[in-house]
Amino acid sequence: MSFSEPRIFAIVPAGGVGARAGTGQPKQYRLLCGQPMLRLAVCALLADARIRQVRVAVAADDPHAEGALRDLPRTTCRPCGGPTRAHTVLGALHDALNDCDGALLPTDWVLVHDAARPGLPADALARLIDACLRHDLGGLLAEPVADTVKRATPQQHAGEPVRVMQSVSREALWLAQTPQMFRAGALLAALEAALADDSAAITDEASAMERAGHQPLLVAGSLLNRKVTWPEDFDIMERLLGPRA
Ligand SMILES: Nc1ccn([C@@H]2O[C@H](COP(=O)(O)OP(=O)(O)OP(=O)(O)O)[C@@H](O)[C@H]2O)c(=O)n1
Ligand SMILES: C[C@](O)(CO)[C@H](O)COP(=O)(O)O
Q1: Shortest CA distance to 239 belongs to which of 223, 217, 218, 216?
Q2: Atom 8 (ligand 2): residue with closest C-alpha?
Q3: Where is this site: Positions MEP for the nucleophilic attack (predicted)?
Q4: Parallel, antiparallel, or unpaired: how do β-strands 139-144 and 174-183 relate?
Q5: Domains along the chain with CATH numbers
């Protein structure tokens, strides 16, 4: 049995366009408190010294990444962007596992973290890493649902009002955040199988692991770790980051 230190890496998928955010450029490059959102998300990961390297996966023709990440330690940028978030993560895993530096081994841990979550607090990140290492199971940050949950009726026509079809019990429901932490080899196999099956349903790493029969750990996240998705999220996030950035 080996008692060597666990090796922990991070992948930041940053190959999206930010269509819902309504910005002219990919949202990960919008400035928040004077810094690109992507840089803030990477810095949040670098705050934990246990993360050996952060690998940022961007679109092949991305002209902004190098400037946004300039001078950050332990950070590399790779042209691995794919058509969906899951394809980008899979591309980044292949890239890291095939890296001639031998950067990533199948047994290494990988944390996958959205470029669109710049507010990840250090204590939440440490909680996730500690829990996954302690149980030797992968897991994710998440928040229990606090509001009443409604399922909407299907819309027959554009412009039709959206109505409630039914209320859904919130008991045992959690909202998934990132980072999500798994062993690189297991995550690669799970993503490959899941994407071959139904790529639309794979909106996070845990979904792929669940399909492969695993039960990822749910670790308490933070409301500060919200995802910047809609136009109004930039102002909200700037206010949340204000005292820290
Ligand atoms: N093909 C894609 C799509 C998304 N992402 C990344 O996945 C994260 C979460 O995705 P999301 O918030 O949906 O970002 P976008 O896809 O850019 O936004 P939208 O869906 O509104 O276009 C972001 O860091 C985004 O850059 C990615 O790497 N590759
Ligand atoms: C991974 C994620 O942030 C967990 O909540 C989320 O699923 C990303 O979803 P999106 O469709 O890429 O916005």
Answers
A1: 223
A2: 203
A3: 170, 227
A4: antiparallel
A5: 8-241 (3.90.550.10)
Regarding beta strands 109-112 and 174-183, do their DSSP bridges make them parallel or antiparallel, or are they unpaired?
Answer: antiparallel
Rounded-to-10 torsion of CA 174, 180, 131, 98:
160
Q: How far is the CA of 3 from the centre of ligand 1 (A)?
A: 37
What's the full length of the chain, in residues? Answer: 245
- Give residues with Cβ within 8 angstroms of 68, minimum separation 6: 28, 29, 36, 38, 39
* Global pTM value: 0.96
ipTM of the complex: 0.98
- The closest-lying atom of ligand 1 relative to the alpha carbon of residue 41 is 24
86-105 tens-digit pLDDT: 999 999 999 999 987 667 99
